[in-house]
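Appendix B.2, paired examples.
Example (i):
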Amino acid sequence: MVPASVFHGIIVVACPVRRPIVWTHFCIALSTKKMEKREFSDLEDMRLLYRGNKILGDLFSKSVSSIRQLTKNESEAKGFYRFLNNERVSEEDIVSNLVSNCQAACRGKYVVCIQDSTEINLSSHSNRIKKDSYIGTTNANNEKGLGFLLHPSLVVDAYQCIPYGYSDIKIWNRSLELKSKFEREYNKLSIEHKESYKWIEVSNNTKTALADIVEGMVIVQDREGDIYEQFAVIADEKTDLLIRARANRTLADNTKLFDCLSAQQAQGCYEIPVEAKKNRKKRRATIEIRYKQVEIKKTAGTSKGVPPITSLYLIEAKELNYSGEDKICWRLLTTIAVQTVEIAKMCIEWYSWRWTIEEVFKILKKEGYNIEASELEYGSSVRKMSLMIMEVIIKLFLMRLAYAEPEMVINTDTCFSKEEQDFLEHQIIQLEGKTEKQKNPYKSKDLKRYVWVIARLGGWKGYESKRHPGITTLWIGLKYFKAAMVGWEIRRNVSTR
């Protein structure tokens, strides 16, 4: 459960978008941690280890998933294809290495583990891709899509949302001839035989991976994770759940979950900024907070062997004086003892961090590496490549975070080699303007200095008064970075002959 120290010294502040509303005096101490290099450390032999890390490095520096664009010649391309097709490199091996990187990064920390699912739709390649046991139907095209599904647990720091990696990634596919839920008598299946068991399975694997590593953890899930069995069996002395309520359950006292707070006076009120997005205007939202301890009960369809009643806390965050379709109304169920407004606000903030895993999916797919357009012919290869890209995305998150948080120091070696740093120093000279506002404001060699360069290459104008560069801008900048570096190396080598 959440230790008292997590909430010691809390200061609630009005904050910009995507910045915690709750800060602690631990932040600066946490931010100076030197991040480990994110690469493979355990594969069957050194050749596979070298090849795997070469692919990871090129995926990051070139920001493409096409093997032809990643490699310099036919020999290197064949090596990459062989690695992805090699039976001695399994999905389990890749996930194990990703989990190991996460464990090294978050040791001794208090963390938030965010789960969600996405599907990789390969329908546009249905005439080319091999329909083997690694792909099946997806929800696309009225459940006639072709591909597979991913369900990761993204681990971030509980104080600053620093991404540490993944505590588990479930990857699977349905049958190519999937029967309907009616034909499968889905409602009669035990939870272990339903696809929704992914939430419980990944939660259990997360506990196994992190129980001896971290100080404590909060598992955050959207409404799909609102499963009685999770609340009944997952939480322990180091593990809490924070899940958005899906169903208006009947409680143990026969009242309804969504109604039990309606007559209660608000216990807190504060303002948050809401970003403008498609069909959503920028505004400042006034949020009322209510919370209460509740008891939920098992239903006729609940698995046997779980307690009949489970005690939780319900938090309601509801927007006032606004009637748009995007009006905020979150009802969160948690095993955390919510006894103060500050703890309730922290839980609301942790749930709002779900956007981080959505950005992972965005960069993996259409707005980044576009893995769904991969030229790979085997589903198994696309699946392995997807897992490797997800590890590379953590570096992108670190780059953006390093720039957004002035106090945070992340070592440059985490993302760039010595040769790449030399090139980036050269680029600073080329990209700086004549005025002070157009110059790189970071003098020491921490990651911020070079993120400035990547962002400029990605189209950011360099003005610190404007919005900081986002993930997509950094991804675009990396594409130009590698191409420019190749030209710089050729020119440098020619000039020294």
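Example (ii):
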Amino acid sequence: MSEIPGPVSAALFERREKAVPRAVFNTAPIFVADGEGASVTDVDGNEFIDLAGGLGVLNVGRGNQRVTQAVMDQAQRFIHECFHVSMYEGYVELAERLNELTPGDHDKKTMLANSGAEAVENAVKISRYATERPAVVGFSNGFSGRTLLGMTLTAKEMPYRHGFGPFAPEVYRAPFAYCYRCPLDLEHTTCGLACADYTADMIDSQIGASEVACMLVEPVQGEGGFVVAPDDYLPALKSICEERDILYIDDEVQSGMGRTGTLFAIEQYGVVPDLVTTAKSLGAGLPISGVTGNADVMDAPHVGGLGGTYGGNPVACAAAIAVLDELTETDLLQRAKSQGRVIRERLDPLAGSLGIVGEVRGLGPMVAVELVMDKKTKEPAKLATGAILERCHERGVLILKAGTYDNVVRLLAPLVISEDDLHKGLDVLVEALEWADRGLSD
């Protein structure tokens, strides 16, 4: 590999600096020329193993043949019509597929939008309309996007909320079961799910159950650091909702589309949500998202109350249908489970052998490493995280960070990655972690 960034990327970065605002962040200092599956080639000819997946978007890989063909076929017919002006079958077919595949055998309906943030916004709008209640309950370490309501629900101040207030009203935040950093200083299995009890009490005593429209829950918190809900936690939250006629929104924007080894992460908890939000890997790189839910709830808003110019664009719908075909008709979900086992076999031992590794956690191949300065105090190792990412990039591996404290390295490799490339990528990550554990020396 040449120096990262190479000369062509460096020249393009100078142009980027003059043309694009600094607030539009970049993780890897490269410009991509080509990519296939789980590999990327930059404009300088450097090849990278992809453990980032376009920020969780490329579960079925770059250049997936089925997706590419579907996109080409649709683009040759028509690229855009706007479903609100003149309808097309792709929107209906994708809605039918999501109605069929999301958890539960009840009658469902689906509306389509463009992004995860839009899906969340619409799920809340629908919930408020259907229940005639204003309040929304989110969670610590949660992330819901960069729109006004999305930022309000998002728990991380910097960089997502800082300087962008005031925020939307009637949004409340409960403590998520982040067992490594228990907000109540307890230990799971002996805590009696005190955080769920806290949430119930917060709803009853501080907000008023009759005021709460919905609860928005990520089964695995994405930007929050891949915080995995304990087995008994989501069923407890669902019970809290059912007892108070509160709608349970399952946010599968990052954890869905096979990312955890099942089509939806919540399948592994036995919970049937009232509404499900999908995005990211649903479109394999094209912007599309969905809100799928109980038919009566989805039908509550008045005609014209939901929609958008580009929501459910026909080309994006074609891509999403192909993605669902790929996930349901091939062995990708089994490959995802295998990928998860390989990752854990390589990374789990580091929690015992490296002082900087506080915890390795995840669900299926949605795995992260939380970095700490001290295992007892759990002080976040923020600076080390950035240095580890830079070292991985210099050695040909694309990887991301996450976490409320910016101290989590997360893996979002395309599910199509070969075992050989996965091991090579993990070799680089492990070496970088060992290097950081030595104090970023040599």
